[in-house]
Amino acid sequence: MNFVTSTTMLLTLMGVLLTQGAHINSMESAVKINHSLVSTDTKPLAVENSLNYNFRYSKNFIHTHSILSVAYSPDGKSFLIGGHDNTAHLWDVKTGHHLDILKGHSSFVTSVAFSPDGNTILTGSWDSTARLWDVKTGQQLKVLKGHKGPIWSVAYSPEGTTVLTGSSDNTARLWYVETEQQIHLLKKHKGTVNSVAYSSDGATVLTGSSDYTARLWDVKTGQQLDFLKHTHGIVSVASNPKGKTVLIGCVDGTVFLCDAERGKPLHLLKGHKSTVYSGTFNPDGTTILTGSFDKTARLWDVKTGQQLYLLKHMRCVTSVAYSPDGMALLTGCHDNIARLWTLTKISQEDSYDVEVESTALPTSIFTDSLSSTEETESVEEEPRVLGLTQAIN
Known about the structure:
Helices cover 0% and strands 47% of the residues. It is an all-beta fold.
């Protein structure tokens, strides 16, 4: 997974090879949207809905290549797209205008994030670097070097002074933004670190890996505090902005909600049929949004673990994001399109149809096999395994 041939691209998403082999074909000529759901079905989709709002499919943002990551700005006025064209693109949410292109990476931009004040952008890339950019000028400010393999995930700390990166070199690294210096090397994982996240208070960080574990670390000391073990690779993690709940998305399509402080699994979210590439909490911490290789994004209730909405897409959903006010969400897809969905008050008679024009996709080749990471026996001293190998009732 360390090279790309000149004739075919072995596409790797989030540090694990896609589990279902598929040759990407062109999209259907058009797709019906009924009750806000993108679908190739001719029949309306059944949607479980226990909220007082409904999602409306709002608009498309067409990227130049397959999308790997999306992120909303803290003020909700703009968002970022990172993808296979080695750049990050900044867009205006309201007008749909393209604002800037951040150029500097020499390979795929796999992960993007804004600083808490919205003035700086963080990008991670297959070129093994993370870069900081000025939002107003689009100029590159700093380059964080040290990883020995592609970076799959980046995150900004809540206070904005440090950042976190995860890589296929089996490590996560904490960095000072101001000095570009590495603070801690987090190196207990035995496989690609696919996803990283800070806790809401910034005191701990969570990492998810192809080695079937998610690990909790102390930011101040760099020491591992705990870890959770599953039967499949972990591809996405996220922390609740309003509490100690964490989300863990896996290769087998399962999503776990866990209490990170007490080490207690809370819910097993079943619905996705394949790898869950991305997951995020809404700003008030009451719902989560997940995106998957199964071509769907799903909205879930944090308290009950119940699925609330099913949003169907034409290709795998690689990244998802909530707006800062929680009234819109963004889904990034492998069909080169970022889709904006807005929340409206529910009306039983509220229904509409629109046509979405198709775009041809570049040819890419998927592999059938998983990442070569093998499960190995841990030699750590009495780690606490939190029972993620069993279904949670």
